[in-house]
Write a structure and sequence with these properties.
single chain, 232 residues, mainly alpha, 2 domains, 12 helices, 0% strand
Amino acid sequence: MGVKLLKAAIIKSLPIMAGYIVLGMGFGILLKVNGYGVLWAFFMSVFIYAGSLQYVGVSLIADGASLISTVLTSLLVNARHLFYGISMIQKYKGAGLKKLYLMFALTDETYSLVCAGDCPENADPHTYYFLISLCNHIYWITGSVLGSLVGEVLPFSTEGIEFVMTALFVTVFVEQWMTVREHRPALIGVGATAVCLFLFGNEYFLIPAMVMITLLLTAFRGALEKGGTIDG
């Protein structure tokens, strides 16, 4: 069952692999052109493992940002993961020591796969989620290292390279939209984000948007559960 479960996790995470290899390479290249080599790419991807924050982190390192500035920037960039974690409390309940890694590896894309809730029959869901998380992490590390190595031998213009994260988010959103019949959670997310973007501007909208989305999803949880869109 272990090999079959690993195979199922790999198959499920293949779309993420395609994105993470490219995104990781972009990060590795960006890091290299700023003077930081393959070991930086490897260890940042192993221990930080936060795509958008790692891209921002290159600028923080290169500009010699202060510790306070780095902490505040990290909090703002990754604030959404606080809400991801809250929504996973029940799903990860009883995971034992696996929960530590599951919490650490809960990226946007892994979150979308875990929320799909399509664990193979007779399989331990926590082991399945762990394998999906691990596969995605390996893809990201591999891409980062490859990007750093490629950046050593080939010249690249890194202008606009950060957009690859946005592109992957859009791809994941579209894939989720096409695979479920109930679109209210997605519409709530888009609507709340648009409202907060208008009210607070592009520098401060993220946290208010996540709070609004959480409150709205909580308020409509009963109706969404009946529609089969929330797996508690």
